Amino acid sequence: MNTTRPSSNNALTTQAKQLVEQMTLEEKASLCSGENFWQLKSLPRFKLPALMVTDGPHGLRKQAGDSDHLGMNNSVPATCFPTASALASSWDLELLQTVGEALGRETAAQNVAVLLGPGINIKRHPLGGRNFEYFSEDPLLTGQLAAAMIRGVQSQGVGSCLKHFAVNNQETNRMITDAVVDDRTLRELYLRGFEVAIEQSQPWSVMSAYNRLNGTYCSDNAWLLTQVLRKDWQFEGIVVSDWMASNDRVRSIEAGLNLEMPGNGGVTDQQLIEAVSNGSLTEKELDRCVTGIIELMLKARQRPVLPTEVDLPAHHHLAREAARRSVVLLKNERQTLPLQTGQTIAVIGAFAKQPRFQGCGSSKVNPTQIDAAYDSLASWAEQHPGTRLLYADGYCPKHSPNDEALISDAVEIAQAANIVVLFAGLPESFETETADRSQLSLPQQHQRLIDIVAAVDVPSVVVLSNGSAITMNGLEQVDALLEGYLTGQASGSAIADMLTGASNPSGKLAETFPLRQSDLLADAYFPGSARQVQYREGLYVGYRYFNTVDKAVLFPFGYGLSYSNFRYLKADLQGDPLAEGVRIRVTLHNDSHHDGEEIVQLYVGCQSSNVHRPRQQLAGFAKLLIPAGEKRSVDISLDLHAFDFYCVKQQRWLKNPGQYSIDVGSSSRHLHLQIPVTIPVREPVVSTETIVSTDPVSAFFQAMTAETRQIPDTIFQDMLQRDIPTTEPTRPFTVNSTLTELESSRLGRHIAKAFAEKMLEHTQIDKDDTQLVTIVQNVMKSTPLKSMALASNGQFSLKTLNILIHCLNYRFGQALLTLLRH
Fold first, then answer.
1. Is 138 a catalytic residue?
2. Average pLDDT, stretch 101-106?
3. What family does the database annotate (predicted)?
């Protein structure tokens, strides 16, 4: 697969610059914000029509009627592919590119210019409410998967928008929180996936995140958008704000933000005109911004004419294949799976008939069809005489409140069966955009169902449907466990294929499943205070932490079983570790009777160094099909920065001298072969980088292995190489205050209540749908007042907002002056 950097189109850039030279100031400013919720403005004088962008990390979400950003209103039918958390478990770059091509075809057929995805933020904590939309806790895996999907989408003549840039790792206070992160952790963990994806795919656009990064809103952050993105990584596309994420429109132009979305009736366009007129913004800076937008419009105009009819049945078949490759077999004692024919099988769990196959929020797709696992199993049973299915709901699929009667029904059919297949997981209300999860454990009803049914004296299989990692009690009682994640509209048939042996599981976890939430080093700092979250755990996220401190986990990163059995025979280093193009050739043998696919993983382990590193880091991977009884070899490229660290003082990657091992395995904790490597001293290592030594007596190591696992202020200051910033106060109120913060004052409580009720009235949702109402309320409570004013289409002006802020701060004289001012 081609992973080389895509070539730039200098001709389009030149043409765009020529058009900008002919534009008026008003025309330039007008292009810097959207026409409405999903469309850019047109430029009729130059015959450039309005472009449409729309959500779609795992399926197109083009809304047919009134627009909203969170998927509350109906969208046109589209193929719902597995979510990112599921696709990541495939570790399959070819599959991701093929899925991207299908997404691109559906996008082009709907005359949409840019698909807003994929999302690639690192899974810092499993409670992240949007983790189902993100790939992994590892940046290399994340970046390569994203690049493959982007190449697929853009091969169809439409653009992809990589998001959310950057360090958007939680939903709690996502629009106002300040992520405080040291520079080395930023470069090696939170920015690295974006760097890989941009180097290998050059997306048409990047979306800036809501949050602040080290004190500055991402949409205003010149270091992030210009220095890192454009200068260091040579990104050539445009930067678009997340919806209502723009903070200061003039400052954001200077920082490198091209397009503000959604439209706001031209309010911020006028701000740009005034800024150029009074000299606070140069027209050259505005021209640079507009040139990128024009180039995007020209690029979209070049799209080849594609069929408007999409082969949706073929795409559904692809969705089923993608789901099959993404399901992870986590346990299979006594070869419980595949299911045997001629048995009475108790199918328990409402998800078997009403599948949970995608997340809730802006990525929610209106699927073209839905496969239920029970229906597929029933069809299989009909084809095998003597095979009989029994069924019990076990729980309510929507919210799963405790219900002993449903458990009793489930136990009754379990006792009458030869084997139990129990579908469990997280209801949609448990994980959604706008809110982080409240618990890592399964709902009590699901956990009790597993405990009680597994105690019945028949073999038990549990199939999980969830968007991110969970904890699970009583696993020893379960004979087999399938992690289905949220595997899209064909999830039911794909799961049935795995259960019946029509397909051989090949997925591997792209995140660690901890034993307990309290085991996470980041847990003490997630989600932080109202306006600040400190990343004190540094590089030690996921397997980087658990493997460094030898802490037990439920399931490790990279883990997954198969109906095949693979033996790792040998591994050979090809090339100079100090040069580019290093490959590891790995040879395996499938000594089973099942053809199967194995995901071979390379980890670089640090044996000795004067610069701290996690014990091991993923440095390469490949998926390999091996027929039963045969041997196969695969060449795996080693990550360019496998032996590097990011030197903050020199602002560049440096080779880290020392003793290393390249470990080859089937997971981060199942390492079968090892190649020793020595990196000699060739350039000085900066002493300030030895903040945390690999020496076990180091302060950081002691802190993160202690019972409390708290990282002291002194260590965090050393990591930041500056004082820890104080948390921004919530008073006095500002235009960036939220309704939640207003509730801290008596007057604010009344205003917040009235404002929320008014906004809810204008939201076209079913008021009896408590989940959607909760989502809307979460959005309203956490959105800065300024953003809501801009999104109100003139119903609530910035002038009115400023008057209100003065009144809330008891500055009534200033409120009057503002009122009287033109």
1. no
2. 97
3. Belongs to the glycosyl hydrolase 3 family.
